[in-house]
Design a protein that fits this description.
The chain is an alpha/beta fold and 921 residues long. The chain has 5 domains: 85 residues, no CATH class; 135 residues, Rossmann fold, CATH 3.40.50; 169 residues, 3-Layer(aba) Sandwich (Rossmann fold); 242 residues, Spore Coat Polysaccharide Biosynthesis Protein SpsA, Chain A (Alpha-Beta Complex), CATH 3.90.550; 114 residues, Tetratricopeptide repeat domain (Serine Threonine Protein Phosphatase 5, Tetratricopeptide repeat), CATH 1.25.40.10. It is 42% helix and 16% strand. Strands 15, 16, 17, 18, 19, 20, 21, 24, 25 and 26 form a 10-stranded mixed β-sheet that branches. Helix 10 links the parallel strand 7 and strand 8. Helix 15 crosses helix 17. The longest helix has 28 residues. The two termini are 22 Å apart.
Length: 921
């Protein structure tokens, strides 16, 4: 972080990078300075005003302190803010590269460090020996061990660790109950040594070396994990708290532990594939917490149906309820605890929504919901397949009958299981609410099952086996349910939903009835070679759309929304109601040509690694509207490459792999759509398809453009798709989420087709134009750009598949040949920034100088000045700073750089004036 000026925020910048890497900053207890790591006397820096106080300097050197505070604020508003964004988006690395470290070894100052062999020897000598579980001298069955619980999650920690700890006090002695953060801060340290057990949880913050040390002292280390945390769906907000570094550390701690415990068999199986053995400790309830509560029945004017869960975590799971609520709004009362679907507040819907309560108050609050029927929807995906049935137990012990998704966690309990389809749920709910006596009997059956098999006393022997390391002790296992429940409607077994069609064609509409009619007519006329259904989702059209849709028959479903929910929501509604093996999203302003659908299906049937397929879309004049989506060097903007090219051009008639294709006509595997959490409804009619494709790509699956599927697209005929405000919103969301993952690929695809991608100003905007490569020299220079982007795409693909990254020597070699790159400003600027991220200083300097040779460039001047200052080349730095200020006298960065230059020239008074001018700019 050498770009900071005098009294900068280098310490805060370093602390920020430490946090972004998933690590923690720790300080002496009396130095509470936030991210700041003071080099001298410790000062408290106010987080809002950024004013520093140490009790002395602000009194004895008030003017000097005021200047430092002002400088600090300027740094935070300018350089620190920009660096934070660059670190989060991947523009700047969080730590220095190995090449930088090797270069630093040549510095004479570093020559007196111990060599690598000495360090390795010292580490080998000092490494504590790990005590294996077989060699640990466990006591006999007499109570003698002390168990300490170190929880990183308060809710799951109480259910999984604290409740068993308290329930088993006749077996072990209760030790410390503490969070990992409190141990790190030194507030409390659990007892360690022979006869001690530490139970840690999930992504424990404790260092592996510290844990190895307590194991060396004889402490038995248990690691508990209750979710498939390394496979969280993209729509789950908890994903942002679990970067790859945290997951890798968690898996290493599991491997280090003496015993690993998990909540379900799927987690156990997944860990076994990773070489980690574990014991299943199923979740259970404490009888005393629940036995005094007995809910009332039939207290509402209508049957009361409810759901409970954490707010904002189950958006994908509860999406199915939105359709169900709308259909049943006149028939039931809805009750929600923790969160509620959007349609719960629609006109005509009777609903009660309660905030989530503390775990201690949860049983009482659940009982007061007084439900006649509880719902347990879970989207079928790998993460949910590995979840526990804790919610079923909580419903069941209160006697609430349950309808749930037919998924692994719901297989043991006597509940009514269904495919994850709105129509099946609507039918089942209607059948049950017409016989409330039978519902009560179902609820009592479930209650008796929970009391017989899933209380803490039933699983405590397994905790004794895992925590104390004793031989397996017989315990009451909950067998697969043989309880008689009312017969279910006909559907396939778990995870094998009865699919009636090859494809479900989902068409969201809002007005423009003539386009919808035209699209459906052509679909019916030209679609053959595979079976399909059509699902039209009407977003509250105000023209004749509803009347037209009411005339449709056959394999057509119509979903009518009370208001315009937008593109993403409408598509998700259609997908929830679909019965096809593949989901096809289609705009109503398209006209398909013969063979369009069969070509899409052939692609996924012939290539198992392909998850999404996009079509070739033509304007009415037979020029290209869509032949794949690429990302620009200019701000990473996604756009349709080859737009406007002739439809018969060879480049657009070749099957290609892209990062993104448009959802104007897109096929996606049904299971993949569920796995990534569907379209994200945070987008407002834009970039939903980009986000979906990137989520699929992150899972290592392919996105393909298939030119044999052809449709006409009357683009922008559907109103509401273009709005400057929503476009800004969508762009910000996309960049915040994906900037660090996106690979610039526009040149890779253009050059492979024989074109250079050059930028020109048109209509006041910098826009790309494809120009045919003419000479061999021109082709060779642009080929270097293609090769670099191809290598970056390959690295991204390897990362998504968990493969070891390829050696980047080829990439570095190509970037070192900066003299051979094309004479194109956008290309050279992009290459310079890429070199900066890889810390290739010679390459960065070379590309910036070539950029200046084309024309004056502020960014090039600033970076070249910084590079010159870094190597104490004051003459070159002076040239760039003078040119920068001559071109723009009000350039704050220029004055700041001039201040640094003057400081290096020992002209402190002049430097102070430059810094003041910078602060005024």
């Amino acid at each position: 972080c050498e770009d900071y000026g005098l009294y900068g925020e280098e310490d805060a910048d370093y602390g920020l990078r430490i946090q972004l890497q998933g690590l923690q900053n720790a300080y002496m207890e009396d130095e509470q300075v936030g991210l700041h790591l003071p080099a001298g006397r410790a000062a408290h820096i106010d987080g809002d005003t950024l004013k520093a106080t140490d009790g002395i300097e602000e009194k004895t050197h008030a003017e000097y302190r005021a200047f430092k505070d002002e400088s600090r604020r300027k740094n935070v508003e300018d350089i620190a803010k920009r660096n934070r964004q660059d670190y989060q988006t991947g523009v700047k690395p969080l730590y220095c590269s190995s090449a930088f470290v090797e270069e630093s070894r040549k510095d004479p100052v570093c020559q007196n460090r111990p060599d690598e062999s000495t360090r390795q020897k010292n580490q080998t000598d000092e490494k504590p020996k790990k005590v294996s579980p077989e060699s640990t001298p466990y006591p006999s069955r007499e109570r003698g061990r002390t168990v300490s619980v170190i929880a990183s999650d308060s809710i799951c920690g109480r259910i999984r660790l604290l409740q068993p700890l308290l329930a088993g006090e006749r077996i072990w002695t209760k030790g410390a109950i503490v969070s990992d953060a409190n141990i790190i801060l030194g507030h409390i340290t659990p007892p360690a040594g022979n006869g001690q057990v530490w139970v840690i949880q999930r992504t424990c913050l404790l260092d592996a070396a510290d844990l190895a040390n307590v194991q060396y002292q004889g402490t038995r280390l248990i690691h508990d994990c209750d979710d498939l945390l390394w496979n969280i769906p993209a729509d789950n907000p908890n994903l942002r708290f679990l970067p790859p570094g945290k997951i890798e550390k968690m898996l290493r701690l599991m491997d280090q532990a003496d015993c690993v415990t998990v909540s379900t068999e799927p987690i156990q199986a997944d860990l076994k594939r990773r070489g980690i053995n574990s014991i299943v400790l199923p979740n259970s309830l404490v009888r005393q917490d629940w036995e005094e509560f007995r809910p009332k029945r039939r207290v509402g004017s209508r049957p009361r149906i409810g759901w409970a869960g954490q707010a904002n975590v189950h958006k994908g799971d509860t999406a199915i309820l939105e359709t169900i609520i709308e259909v049943l709004k006149d028939e039931v009362e809805w009750v929600f605890l923790g969160d509620a679907p959007r349609t719960a507040s629609s006109p005509g819907v009777i609903s009660e929504v309660y905030s989530m309560v503390d775990l201690a108050q949860y049983p009482k609050k659940m009982a007061r919901l007084n439900l006649d029927l509880a719902l347990a929807p879970l989207v079928p995906n790998e993460f949910n397949e590995a979840k526990s049935d804790i919610r079923i137990l909580q419903y069941g012990i209160l006697g609430y009958p349950v309808i749930g998704t037919d998924i692994f966690p719901h297989q043991e309990a006597p509940i009514f299981r269904l495919p994850h389809e709105p129509q099946a749920w609507i039918k089942a709910i209607r059948e049950r609410i017409h016989d409330l006596d039978a519902l009560e009997r179902e609820g009592e059956t479930l209650r008796q099952w929970v009391l017989a098999h899933r209380l803490i006393e039933h699983v405590l022997p397994k905790y004794e086996q895992a925590w104390l390391g004793r031989e397996a002790i017989p315990c009451t296992q909950a067998p697969p349910s043989r309880v008689q429940v009312p017969p279910a409607p006909t559907y396939a077994p778990r995870n094998q939903v009865k699919l009636s069609f090859d494809c479900s064609i989902i068409i969201p509409v809002w007005n423009k009835v003539e386009l919808t009619s035209q699209c459906l007519t052509h679909v019916a006329e030209v679609t053959e070679g595979c079976s399909y259904e059509v699902i039209v989702v009407d977003n509250a059209s105000t023209d004749a759309t509803q009347a037209f849709l009411s005339t449709l028959s056959g394999d057509v479903q119509v979903i009518t929304n009370p208001e315009n929910y937008g593109f993403a929501k409408a598509c998700n509604q259609g997908a929830a109601a679909a019965k096809g093996r593949f989901l096809v999203f289609l705009n109503n302003d398209t006209i398909p040509k013969p063979g369009w659908l069969r070509a899409l299906v052939n692609e996924v049937e012939c290539h198992q690694d392909v998850a999404i397929v996009g079509s070739k879309l033509l304007y009415p004049n037979d020029t290209i509207q869509h032949a794949g989506v690429v990302f620009s060097k200019n701000c990473l903007t996604p756009y349709h490459i080859f737009r406007g090219a002739p439809g018969e051009l060879q480049a657009v008639n070749v099957r290609r792999e892209f990062q993104v294709v448009t959802a104007a006509c897109m096929l996606i595997r049904r299971e993949e759509f569920d796995a990534v959490g569907h379209f994200d409804e945070i987008y407002q009619n834009g970039f939903e398809d980009v986000d979906l494709c990137l989520k699929v790509g992150k899972r290592g699956k392919k996105v393909i453009y298939q030119p044999e599927s052809v449709l006409y697209h009357l683009e922008h005929q559907t109103p509401g798709r273009k709005n400057p405000e929503t476009e800004r919103h969508n762009g910000m969301v996309l960049m915040e989420r994906w900037a660090s993952s996106i690979v610039v690929d526009e040149d890779f695809h253009a050059i492979s087709a024989g074109y250079a991608n050059r930028y020109h100003f048109r209509d006041g905007m910098l826009q790309p134009t494809l120009e045919a490569l003419q000479s061999d020299m021109d082709t060779r220079s642009w080929k270097r750009v293609q090769q670099v982007q191809e290598l970056l795409l390959r690295q991204r693909q390897d990362a998504t598949q968990g493969l070891k990254g390829q050696d980047d020597r080829e990439l570095r070699a190509l970037l070192s040949e900066y003299r051979e790159w094309p004479e194109d400003g956008e290309v050279l600027r992009w290459a310079a920034k890429l070199c900066q991220s890889l810390q290739l200083l010679d390459g960065e300097r070379g590309f910036w100088k070539r950029t200046l040779s084309i024309g004056e460039d502020r960014a090039a001047r600033e970076q070249l000045a910084k590079l010159a200052l870094n190597v104490n080349d004051l003459s070159e730095a002076t040239d760039h700073i003078q040119a920068l200020l001559q071109f723009d006298p009000g350039n704050g960065a220029g004055h700041w750089l001039q201040g640094i230059l003057l400081m290096q020239s020992q002209q402190c008074a002049e430097a102070a004036r430059s810094f003041r001018r910078a602060l005024q700019c």
